[in-house]
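Quick one: structure tokens for this chain, please?
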Amino acid sequence: MPERRWELPLPLLLLGLGLRAQGALPPPCESRVYCRGELLHQVQMAKLYPDDKQFVDMSLSAAPEQVLRSFGELAAAHNHSVPGPRLRAFVQQHFRAAGQELEPWAPEDWHGSPRLLQRISDARLRAWAGQLHQIWRKLGKKIKPEVLSRPERFSLIYSPHPFIVPGGRFLEFYYWDSYWVMEGLLLSEMTRTVEGMLRNFLSLVKTYGHVPNGGRVYYLQRSQPPLLTLMMDRYLSHTYNVSFLRENIETLALELDFWAVNRTVSVSVGGKSYALNRYHVPYGGPRPESYSKDTELADTVPAGHREALWAELKAGAESGWDFSSRWLVGGPDPDLLSSIRTSKLVPVDLNAFLCQAEELMSKFYLLLGNASQAARYRNLRAQRLAAMQAVLWDEQKGAWFDYDLEKGKNNLEFYPSNLTPLWAGCFSGNSIPDKALKYLEDSQVLTYRHGIPTSLVNTGQQWDSPNGWAPLQDLVIRGLAQSSSPRTQEVAFQLAQNWIRTNFDVYSHKSAMYEKYDVVSGGQPGGGGEYDVQEGFGWTNGVALMLLDRYGDRLSAGAPRARQVPGFLLATLLLGFLPQCP
């Protein structure tokens, strides 16, 4: 195997992370209420709430200076160790309950009979799709004007346009979730809602230089998988609104610049250097929304390693896979979260997302008549394709694998992300999809009948076995579906059938959609990780609608179980809302 090594490209180091290390660019969140400071530390370590996120989502009832002054007096009176009951009383006096800065919003472009429903042959799946379409009305949120007039009292970042949230504990928008939400909204013919969400994200890039992980100030230190360019492409495919693209093309370029400047590493293979990207958050300190867990985890490592551990946890959150054995492999103890080393890996999916974005930017600029910029992004994509081929692709196994920067080798464990280049169209050669199918067969993941597992190891983390996640099903299914081979296309359909039945069966029992599912035992919501499984659920709804749209003439709900008709279906039938087949 050729010798491989990695380093930060000097120009990027000077432009990005090096400047931050010298202190020239301060952390983007300086709030001594929501991001750092004694008040945050004492409240979170007292564990007043079962979920750390609850406190940092509460808004202040007075100016932060006044609240901090009052807390300073309270802390001094108790030798900076305020008893739990006094802390609780203080919070109740100076903070308002989480979520009060948001109000429910019924999307104005929602209507009851999108054409999607007419394309679904199975009556039970058609009725269920109608229920999924209804869920968008429950997940709509609008930010109250007071967040704009007094932003210092809120952790919520003001966005002028209403949006769709994931659901459950996630009261605000999230970056990569929103891509699959938008796919579902577009199938529901809600283009105005999608445009508003796009405008919010573009505004954030103009303000902060990137799209944050989510819509809170404590998320500003990190982003999430960069799908903004793809969101624009999907919106354009439904609206042909070229003037909107022209208005915002430079902002899309600015977001890609953020990843180029701040998240690029150079990997040398056989004497040649290749630029690729990684997740990397160069800020320590516990995550405010998981403060007590991060603090307690840091107590298990030497004091000199704590800041690095916190930075790696933030990088793991930036990846969207928080957390997974992907980021633990190669650490001192791969069963422990304290071994996390996200920034030491070059992820397949991140580079596939950026490769796709570069291709789309070339297409966009060509559409707008800017040939030089189109050529620039076409060249960037070509360079990335060569880098992915040299560093991430394994010809023998027929898949791409994350590259370990420290160990100089690829992580050959199975993850659905290993096939993201298929989904993104970032590969060359007609035989690649069929090689990927053989890789799936060799990995034995096609034996799972309830969905594709996130990994083949159970660490207790939510982005591992036994959980299956909707976006990961999409990455594999759409990747295989693009093959010219009927057999590979048929496997894609069967994987879609498995996932739809899992979603449908759970909904039939619980009348809810979930963020993740247990695909090992089957028919159950998922688990593991830092919080209980959440209902809603934005991206799960979006992927289900996408699969129903693609395969609606073939998908089946399966044989009804020996029990009464599901309540949601019975109500639909009785009220006469069941759409008819065309």
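The longest strand covers residues 264-269.
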